[in-house]
Amino acid sequence: MNITIKPVSIEDFVEFKCTEGYKWLSDQPKPEVVTGKITKSDLKELPFIVEGLFWDDGSKESLLIRNLDGKYSIYKYDLSNLSTDDWEDTTLFNKHLAHRLGEHIRKIRFLKYSEMEDDLFLPGELKTLVFKGLIFVGFEK
User: Fold this and answer.
1) Which among 31, 56, 25, 27 has a CA at the least distance from the CA of 43?
2) Are 141 and 19 in contact (CB under 8 A)?
3) Read out DSSP for 9-43?
4) Are 38 and 49 a contacting pair, CB within 8 Å?
5) In terms of C-beta density within 10 A (0-12 exposed, 13-18 middle, 19 or more buried), how is residue 111 classed?
6) Are 131 and 101 in contact (CB under 8 A)?
7) Pair 107, 98: CB distance under 8 Å
């Protein structure tokens, strides 16, 4: 599975085209479903984005925004090199119930991302598949 993960600094962040996603602002009791563009002006000090997950179906890119201790952490995931077989392999995806996102969204979809790494006890001799995280890939409506 060929996935590119790129940390993005606030200085380098310009905009991200969002087919579907959500942002949860610090002054709101629940997240807001969004489409359109996410821009640098969305990355305010107050109210700040506590968590944002955004997906662009056209470019097959995902964007994660979190605010930790007053600083934004932004990661862009490029999934455009995944094969058709990968997208059709249901074992690679998790679906979670979409609490607080409204009745029209049933589940949130994530790609399970893992990488092969040297085994802790037999480095250089044995590789182990290590889970790295979940990457947001849209909603199930």
Assistant:
1) 25
2) no
3) -TTT--EEEEEEEEEEETT-SS-EEEEEEEEGGG-
4) no
5) buried
6) no
7) yes
pLDDT tens across 108-126, in order?
A: 999 999 989 999 899 899 9
Bridge-partner residues for 95, per DSSP?
A: 109
> What is d(CA 41, CA 89) in angstroms, rounded to the nearest whole number?
37
The predicted model scores a pTM of 0.89
Could you identify the residue written with the tokens 């997208």? Answer: 87
Residue 114's H or E segment, with its range, is strand 107-118
Which amino acid is residue 70, in one-letter code? G
Q: Residue 101: name the closest of 28, 21, 33, 29 by CA.
A: 33
Q: Would you say residue 89 has pLDDT above 80?
A: yes
CB 79 within 8 A of CB 1: no
Helices (H), the chain: 84-88
| Identity of the amino acid at 80 | S
